Amino acid sequence: MHTQLAGVSILVISAAASPLSTSHFVIDRSASNLAIAPLHQSNVPENHVQDSYIVVLKPDVDLTTHTNLVASTHAEDPLAGEDSGLIHVYDGQIKGYAGRFANSTIAKLRIMPEVDYIEHDQLVWASDIEKGAPWGLARISHREKLGFGTFRE
User: Fold this and answer.
1) CB 13 within 8 A of CB 34
2) d(C-alpha 66, C-alpha 106), whole Å
3) Which of 74, 79, 98, 101 is nearest to 88 (CA)?
4) pLDDT tens digits for 3-12?
């Protein structure tokens, strides 16, 4: 009974959480009974970048201390290849980092209380061209010099 309830709780919390690529709303896990950070994945698995993740931290976390801990956790079970481990650190609107990690490292990161959520990195594409964009955008999107008659091209 407890396992079923925990499984249902994980599904409900995962559905309500806010992945980086789809929402700007932050879900507060502090009042939740869920002890692990949600792991968000795209509905299109072929777009996943293998073993690559974006980890978003809670706002009050000391980024330097946490990334040092992540580096040592990753060293315990590194991926093969030169580009594994921390790749990029975000310290602006969000605190977090991107990197390539083994499943065992992700499991350890998910139980850290300072981790808000983890998202499997994925390939994305621009799918449309804006027509009738405001004046000035054409100037930065064209290689050839624009004139007064061609600025809307």
Assistant:
1) yes
2) 14
3) 98
4) 444 443 443 3
